[in-house]
User: What shape does this take?
Amino acid sequence: MGDNSGKKILLAHGSGGILSHRLIEEVFLKAFTDPLLAPLNDQALFDPPNPPSVSKFAFTTDSYVVSPIFFPGGDIGKLSVCGTINDLAVGGAEPLYMSASFIIEEGTELSVLEKVVDSMARTARAAGVRIVTGDTKVVERGKGDGIFINTAGIGVVTDGIELSPARISPGDSVIVSGTIGDHGIAVLAHREGIMMDSPVQSDCAPLHGLVKDILINAGGVKAMRDPTRGGLATILNELASQSGTSILVREEAIPIREEVRGACEILGFDPLYLANEGKLVAVVSGESAPGVVEIMKKNPFGSDAALIGTVAEEPKGKVLLETSIGNRRIIEKLSGEQLPRIC
Amino acid sequence: MGDNSGKKILLAHGSGGILSHRLIEEVFLKAFTDPLLAPLNDQALFDPPNPPSVSKFAFTTDSYVVSPIFFPGGDIGKLSVCGTINDLAVGGAEPLYMSASFIIEEGTELSVLEKVVDSMARTARAAGVRIVTGDTKVVERGKGDGIFINTAGIGVVTDGIELSPARISPGDSVIVSGTIGDHGIAVLAHREGIMMDSPVQSDCAPLHGLVKDILINAGGVKAMRDPTRGGLATILNELASQSGTSILVREEAIPIREEVRGACEILGFDPLYLANEGKLVAVVSGESAPGVVEIMKKNPFGSDAALIGTVAEEPKGKVLLETSIGNRRIIEKLSGEQLPRIC
Assistant: This one.
């Protein structure tokens, strides 16, 4: 839209009329350039993806309300694309198509929207995922907060891949793909204006390549999850309870950056409950575990991968943390809310 | 959740932790009961829908910010399900799966959320569409406005069906499935507290059954659209411009309820620009038109269907309105915003 500095989003940009059309043409179509989006119909139509090898379709959605919109290592646009890619990937699906829907507060700078949309487009393109349909609504000043984004995604699962907590059994190993808590601390520190010697960057990243590496090169992969809201502790609890097993993790084995550990100590947060946006937890058979860690380490998004625990029979549905001095304590799901608007 | 009167949504309901889990179990799962949703994974997995007869997949999304949340004839929940069904249906697709994502303002009554979710569940069940995946975020008081909903939908187009503005040609007829402006006036009157002798009800309804009736029983159907935001005038302009034809509509032929006409006169609105949520515009070959109108009239959602115009060669991309006294004037797309937060 040429020089848009100073221009602001008006209610009429959500009218469905001339200004809506101009916004679509000059911001969304320009950034998302896709022949499936270009007809601007109410729906995108695509060919059935290669039916013979597809065993399942995967479908997911997330809304993003992160505050602030821009943070070290990412922004709400990149987050909204990576988050949906990751929700498909941890189900073993290859992400193909994505929708993008915006709820924008009246008065938001048009240049801010453009920056967010460009970030979505770049992230999706780099990931090989197509944004093919969308929507924009505008709410009055004070009835929203800048930009909220919803993305939904469709992916396909290839024949023979089956990831499910139901497959987890005693003797399995638990692997995390890298350092935890980076996203939570990055957003929090930026939001609260906390000065750090070396600011922590969000780990926000698309993980479908890492998942593919693992699924192609290793057997024995039972289940995967991405530890976003609620953090590692909550996701491990969900895996334990869904599989009816017990998970024992060794505190010392969990990779945590020094800066994150330091920030947590000062601010009183437990890194086990901080959100991650570029990490996954994999439960794999005991014998596959060293190989899976090796495969992860070769991928840039898995370079700090570590074997952090094992699956046992009892206490069913519980997660135990073994501390560095050998004590064991039960760690629960996140209770209450420590960091609102983190994604 | 038992007696929830007085209980309110807290930020912790969006934490991803214990309260999020309870909300999912006790509100969403309880209402949406679906075996694909029940595993509570990050994605829903479903079998490839009957590949041999499927020529295309359809994918759509819309966010809903209607204010107020409840209005005569519907609510944001019903609207969010019907809107996505209709966006699939007008592409000729049979709607199959839907996602539901909520952005809730802290302090919203839990009972209000339950009422909205129940309405979504009832509407989806009656329509034969499955809600299989979802998400919930909570924003601080004053950073949202009650409940915003995003739905995305997946449908399948059967072999041989092809609806596209590109197929429109001079000589075609333009049909609307019923009275226009009902939704716009219903929401506006309720919002502004305007007293009417007989309050106008929103036409909010799922139209995939009506579309199926037409596609099965009539040939010559070229394109369909649902005249939501921007109204009939804007959608006709889009069809004319996308097809490079001219559309001539006769003012007298457009079905408008007396109450809507009256409200428009008093309030200074043009019904041609008011949103509809249970109406479709079909462009069909001239010879098919009377048959299509007859088929529509037999369906409860098409009982006021009418042939309102014809497609001509010139002036390309323009819509002409022939008034009752025989004058013709160009009607443009909606410019500006007459009714924000209508859907």
